[in-house]
# Entry
Amino acid sequence: MDSNRVKQALSKVNDPELKQDLVTLNMARDIKVDGDKVAFTLVLTTPACPLKTVIEEDCKNALSEVGFKKENIKINITSEVRRHGIQGKETIKGVNQIIAVSSGKGGVGKTTVAVNVAIALSQTGAKVGLLDADITGPNVPLMMGDQNPPDIQDGKIIPKEKHGIKYISMGVLVPPDKPVVWRGPMLDGVIRQFIRDVIWKELDYIIVDLPPGTGDAQLTICQAVSLAGGIIVTTPQDVALLDSRKAVNMFKQMRVPVLGIIENMSYFLCPNCKERTEIFSCGGGEKAATEFGVPFLGRIPIELEVRTGGDSGKPITAVNPSSEVSKVFKEIAAQAAAGASVVTINAAQTTISV
Ligand SMILES: Nc1ncnc2c1ncn2[C@@H]1O[C@H](COP(=O)(O)OP(=O)(O)OP(=O)(O)O)[C@@H](O)[C@H]1O
Ligand SMILES: [Mg+2]
# Structure
């Protein structure tokens, strides 16, 4: 048996999400055959890959079909987040994929989601940054628990670092009690500075926390930055769902792929009697996702620890990673990362074939 036969066998295994085979996607590397033993490296497109074990099992089945015993198959699993870049749009030096978190309505939990999804992604082994694009109402530093100014090196900003991620926000550049009263073009300038003048270094992902609505910050991020996708946060009540339609339409108009909708504050699980109460009703986010033809990424319950953690700079995913809510954030992060991989691979292949 030689490595070509192995390659041939692996070319019959598809990545279920990317819907292409592992050889075409260059995900099966360093194939080594030694007698009746085979070893290779499976390079996933994200460390958060939700289908890791499925792909591994499919590889083993394909190789056992061509004669290898399962105990003689060694798969070294690693990952490499591919770089997303659209011609004419800004990329961030050293950063592979940028994902924006938006909502039509304020106060639905964008910042909470952005912070916890970023931390959850970093816990899978990814290198993650968080860019607070809410210039006039920056809440990221409060939720991260450090509002002190960042260091400056040669006129460039060194991002803050906490809970395993890097972040930058207007909230660490101006005193917390000083309002930022600016017009659109000035907001645009700061956001561009966060892209160009922050030493992010090598990162797999940057999560962008957007202000509510569809204003200047959204326009700058969507028009100027090469986004791998956008996530929309909604709460289940009708008024929020109505506004989430605007957020979906904004992304679609700007040709930013929608990675999915998250329903936040979906239900309350009583810590004493475990009864589930649907305070704002429930299920609207999923219905909206179906109606808009975009993925539904998951439901986050109302949890006291999410709120207190946000207020005290101790995000639940960082301080209680094994809690039920943290697991939900982890699943959402994995789904979003998988969606961003699909967008990135498709964009790269479209560019090549043009
Ligand atoms: N799942 C949740 N459980 C409990 N509290 C939550 C949850 N999600 C968000 N909150 C709380 O709701 C409040 C608003 O959340 P957050 O600031 O994340 O919303 P936002 O959409 O970013 O708001 P804005 O539009 O002002 O930027 C915060 O106090 C936060 O702690
Ligand atoms: Mg916010």
About this structure: The longest helix spans residues 324-353.
